[in-house]
Each structure stands twice: as structure tokens, then as C-alpha cells.
Write a structure and sequence with these properties.
Elements: H1 3-29, H2 39-53, E1 61-72, E2 84-98, E3 103-108, E4 114-118, H3 138-149, E5 158-164, H4 175-190, H5 197-212, H6 218-225, E6 229-231
Parallel strand pairs: 3-5
Antiparallel strand pairs: 1-2, 1-6, 2-5, 3-4
Helix pairs in contact: 3-4, 3-5, 4-5, 5-6
């Protein structure tokens, strides 16, 4: 390789590494912040649900799932590589209310459109379909299919509003795992399912595979489930 080309490639690589280090440091500084999720964030997403669907405030709950920083091993987990990760005080909030029907209807405060499907016939991922972004509903469908594939009976759907932490919408923070966990917890709560953290790790791995078509290391999801929880309505 010519020397000038080698220098150019090396320079680009070093810039990319430096940018990633700076981004991780910003997120790392916020990892121990006591502000997430704040009461105002919880109140905002619950209010958005009540306004959008007329849900009874007494029946609204919020699932919270944090993002993660991955100093070593980001994305090589897709190939079974080792992962070091830490959960952050940033993440996904999903306000939801159980329904007496199998219908699922969800909107996002970050993306346009509405996701609607029945648990009796969850749409499968189409070949070439890309998950995330404008197709954010793929994670909700993936969570429902993961539960069904593992033999869980989910007959009650949900109405929901989902949102991510502002300013943390870049790559490398495992947002896909976070939103998948949030949907899993919501479906489980709506259907009175008591599922262990270990089982939810496997369910979220299946959810990600169903949604994106990519397999992943269980360690990625283990970091997520260590910090996920249900937020009761009395936090308002």
C-alpha cells in the first residue's frame, strides 16, 4: 500500500477511535446520574398515553430499560465475541395500559407513525426488512413473537407510547436491546406472566434475532436485564 494512502487510512481510523472515546466518556459521566428516569419524564410519557388513547390513569404503568456503554466489544457480540458493558442512566420508557383484546397499538414520541397488530396474527419480518428507525415497530412485533415461540400465552394486547432519552439517539448504546426489553416487560405484565431475569435475557435475544435477523451474544442482553424494572404508577 502506498505510504500516503496508508497515512490517510490510519488517520481516518484514529479519528473514528477518538470520536468513539469522546462519545463514550460523555455517556460514562452520565451513567451514575440519579435523574433517569426523572418524575417529569415518567409523567410526560404517561400523559402522552392518556391523551392519545384515553387510557385510565390508574391502569397505566411504565417499563424502563436502560441503554448501555460498551467500552470493549461493541457489535462483535453479533458474531459471538466477548462483551464488556455497563448500564447507563439513560434509556427507553414505555407507558402502557393492558387491553381486554389481543390488539396492540403503539406510538413513538421519537418517530412518526403508529404500530398496530393483533397477537393472534403477529406479522413476521419480511426478507430485507430493516429494523429500527422508521420501522421501530419491528421490536414490538419481535417481543410478542419471542414470547409465543417460547410457549407463553399472551392474549391481552396493550396500547402504549414509547420514548428514548433525548440526545442519546446515536449508535453503540444498545437502544435496540433496551426497547425490546421494554416491550417484553409490558406484554408480560399485561398477561400476568412471572418470568425470571434469566429467561428474559433469552427472550430479548430471540426478539432481536426475530426483529433484525442477526444473532447475538447473551452477554449483551444480560447487561440490560440487570437494570430493567417496572415503574409503578405511584411514582407520579
Amino acid at each position: 500500500m502506498p505510504k500516503h494512502i496508508f497515512k490517510a487510512v490510519a488517520g481516518v481510523g484514529l479519528c473514528a477511535i477518538a470520536w468513539r472515546i469522546v462519545a463514550k466518556r460523555v455517556l460514562w459521566k452520565r451513567r451514575d446520574s440519579p435523574s433517569w428516569p426523572s418524575l417529569s419524564e415518567i409523567d410526560a410519557v404517561k400523559s402522552a398515553l392518556i391523551e392519545a388513547y384515553g387510557a385510565d390513569a390508574a391502569g397505566v404503568q411504565v417499563a424502563a430499560a436502560p441503554y448501555r456503554a460498551c467500552p470493549l466489544g461493541a457489535h462483535i457480540d453479533h458474531q459471538g465475541g466477548p462483551v464488556t458493558a455497563v448500564a447507563l442512566q439513560l434509556g427507553v420508557l414505555l407507558a402502557f395500559a393492558p387491553q381486554d383484546s389481543p390488539q396492540v397499538v403503539i406510538t413513538s414520541r421519537d418517530f412518526e407513525g403508529q404500530v398496530a397488530f393483533s397477537l393472534d396474527a403477529v406479522p413476521e419480518r419480511r426478507d430485507g426488512e430493516v429494523c429500527g428507525g422508521a420501522n421501530w415497530g419491528s421490536y414490538a412485533r419481535g417481543a410478542a413473537m419471542a414470547l409465543q415461540q417460547r410457549g407463553y400465552q399472551i392474549r391481552r394486547g396493550i396500547v402504549g407510547v414509547v420514548q428514548g432519552s433525548p440526545g442519546a439517539d446515536g449508535g453503540g448504546i444498545s437502544s435496540s436491546a433496551a426497547v425490546g426489553v421494554a416491550f417484553l416487560l409490558a406484554f408480560e405484565k399485561a398477561n400476568d406472566l412471572a418470568i425470571s431475569a434469566e429467561e428474559n435475557i433469552e427472550l430479548d435475544r430471540i426478539q432481536h434475532t426475530v426483529s433484525s435477523g442477526m444473532a447475538s451474544n447473551l452477554a449483551r442482553w444480560a447487561q440490560k436485564l440487570m437494570r430493567c424494572r417496572m415503574l409503578p404508577c405511584n411514582l407520579l
